[in-house]
Amino acid sequence: MGGQSKKRLPRIERAQILNAYKAGPEAVVSLFEYLQDTLLAVIEEHERRIEELEQIINKDSHNSSKPPSSDGLSRKFSRKRERSGKKPGGQEGHEGTTLRMVKHPQHQQIHEINKCRICGMSLKQQKPLGYEPRQVFDIPPIAVQVTEHRAQIKRCSHCGKLSVGAFPDGVSHKTQYGTRLKAFGVYLKNYGFLSYQRTAEALSDLFAIPVSAGTLASIDRRCARRLEGVVEQIRKKIIRAEVVHFDETGLSINGKLHWLHGAGTRGFTYYYPHERRGNAASDQIGILPQLKGNAVHDNWQPYMKYDCPHSLCNAHHIRELTGIYELGGQAWAQQMIGLLLEGKQSVERAKEAGKKRVAAAVLRDYSCRYETIIATGMKTNPPPTRADAPEKRGRLKRSKARNLLERLARLRKETLRYLHDFRVPFDNNLAERDIRMMRVQQKVSGTFRSYDGALSFCRIRSYISTLRKQGKSVIAALVRAFEKDLTLAECLRNT
Asked: How many domains does the chain have?
């Protein structure tokens, strides 16, 4: 049992057995009773440990907080989804992205027909009756263009001094890369998640121009500095939002664990790296301390210390409840899953009907059923007593089911807020999607070598994610970031 089981069967020496035999029947019976009690205790502990290990083995992303990447191939392909009733492929009414012919193509190629395909007679002298068109969309060979800026030098006839014409803003070196090439480098590194070395190789393959990894790192830093003001405006937008999603994930910087904190709405995203995960980070970021809107999260306790309305992620609750039902066979957990999902459907139906709230009678029914399920679960999972573990000191460990029940009972309002306020979502999936991209970055590009590099990435990624949510062109926005100092309003209006 890996050394975790303290109770073991005692070894009875031969002399002890003989002494019991000589002492008479009662001594032999006492010895056997002692061995029987000890054996039962060891078996019970081993069975408990086996059950714990089986539960660990059977946990995956659908019944616990484990990430989907930890499931393994067998889990991913064996999991079943509920049938939607829709046929595979594009649905009716979906516009799709099929190529459509253009009226004025840039190039035309005529393919002549010189003889009849039926009888073989020559058609060279026949005028065409029309054409059957087919169009091919492709990218022409890309070649970097070099623009030489030449500042005039003139001598004054009055004073004899030389004067030199002014170069445009940004043209400050004998040779340098242009804004579009810089924007492509930043895009590949921070949106495509390529490493600096692979970004340099991609630029060389695409545009036949050499760019070193060190140069790309410098371009990244410069872009981040130019975006500092815009990202700060994004942070202020999020502070004033009605609903904000929060999440965090581990981040390796120079071999040391840091934390990447994400805050987002449907239109804006803000990332920030910090060496701490809790309140010290949130206080420095400054969103939660000033937030008046609703904070949506997965019940990470430091979030709950801030004085704003809170809403808990019910997708997390459903995964925990699924584990308790599947691994522990507790029916109340399945009932709670049904109640939460039924409430979600009620909200969706009310929205579709143009209503602003669920009917009061329906809310009362949900509340009563919620309390009944909690009470049933509490009876099934009573709190531990000293009799269960007389040798242990301090607070007795509760089961995961009991902990979840106590949380659902204590945070009933935060769990069911989505039923009472239609602005509040059922889950925290928006924040999880935003954070997931940062995990992808570390898997594809590797960890960060410095805090400044992580901070630059977070600023640029905040900008890119926000523009994506706003339906704007990322490349065009990055070009403009290198061309001039921007405000957030200009970015959203002009890109």
From this structure: 3
Strand order in the sheet with 294-297: 269-274, 256-264, 243-253, 294-297, 310-312
How far is 3 from 41, CA to CA, in rounded Å?
16
- 155 in the Ramachandran plot: left (φ > 0), alpha (ψ -120 to 50) or beta? beta
> What tokens were used for 286?
């400054």
pLDDT for residue 2: 42
List of residues 6+ apart from 202 with CB closer than 8 A: 188, 194
Nearest CA-CA partner of 346 in 450, 419, 241, 283: 419
pLDDT of residue 33: 78
User: How far is Cα 447 from Cα 472, in angstroms, rounded to an integer?
Assistant: 29
Q: What is the pLDDT of residue 225?
A: 94
Enumerate the β-bridge partners of residue 263: 246, 270
What pLDDT is recorded for position 142? 82
The label of the residue with tokens 């039926």 reads 118
**Are residues 472 and 495 in contact, defined by beta-carbon separation less than 8 angstroms?**
yes
User: Two tokens at 287?
Assistant: 């969103």
pLDDT < 70 regions, the chain: 1-9, 51-52, 54-56, 58-91, 93-97, 386-394, 396, 494-495
Cα–Cα distance, 460 to 269 (Å, whole number): 11
Rounded CA-CA distance 323/317 in Å is 10
Query: φ, ψ for residue 122 (rounded to 5)?
Result: -70, 140
Q: What CA–CA distances, in Å, run from 460 to 227, 277, 379, 429, 478?
A: 7, 21, 52, 22, 9
Q: What is the pLDDT of residue 78?
A: 43
Whether 355 and 404 map to the same domain: the answer is yes
Both 335 and 404 in a single domain? yes
Range of the domain at 370: 314-385+397-420
Q: pLDDT at position 5, please? A: 45
Residue 490 located in a structural domain: yes
- CB burial of 196-211 (b: ≥16 within 10 Å; e: otherwise) equals bebbbebbeeeeeeeb
Tokens 């086996």 -> residue: 50
Whole-number pLDDT of residue 64:
58
Distance of CA 345 to the CA centre of its chain: 24
- Same domain for 401 and 333, yes or no, is yes
Task: State whether 326 and 412 are in the same domain.
Answer: yes
Q: How far is CA 55 from the centre of its chain?
A: 26
CB count in 10 Å sphere of residue 479: 20
